[in-house]
């Protein structure tokens, strides 16, 4: 979602507004254990699931370090 937490100022193709995300999430309640309610996130997850876990972990760690203000 576009917010201060995500460090995103406005919605875009892959970043829904809070209202769009909530509507999509509510429609998914009770269907599956893993929920990708926003359609663009489902596309991202499809491609991310093809990458090795170690690559995804390194990418997530680098983003967390950048957002946390830590130096690498």
What do you see in this structure?
It is a single chain. The chain is mostly helical. It is built from 3 helices and no strands. The longest helix is centred in the last third of the chain and has 16 residues. 1% of the residues are buried.
Order of helices and strands: HHH
Poorly predicted runs: none
What is the general shape?
Answer: globular
Strand content: under 5%
- Report the count of strand segments: 0
> What is the typical, i.e. mean, pLDDT?
78
Separation of the first and last Cα atoms: 27 Å
| Cα gyration radius (Å) | 14 Å
Keywords: Oxidoreductase
Protein name: Very-long-chain 3-oxoacyl-CoA reductase
InterPro entries: VLCFA-Steroid_DH
GO molecular function: very-long-chain 3-oxoacyl-CoA reductase activity
What is this structure's SSE topology?
Blueprint lengths: L17 H11 L10 H10 L4 H16 L4
Describe this protein with a few key phrases.
single chain; 72 residues; mainly alpha; 3 helices
Quick recap of the structure?
By secondary structure, the chain is mainly α.
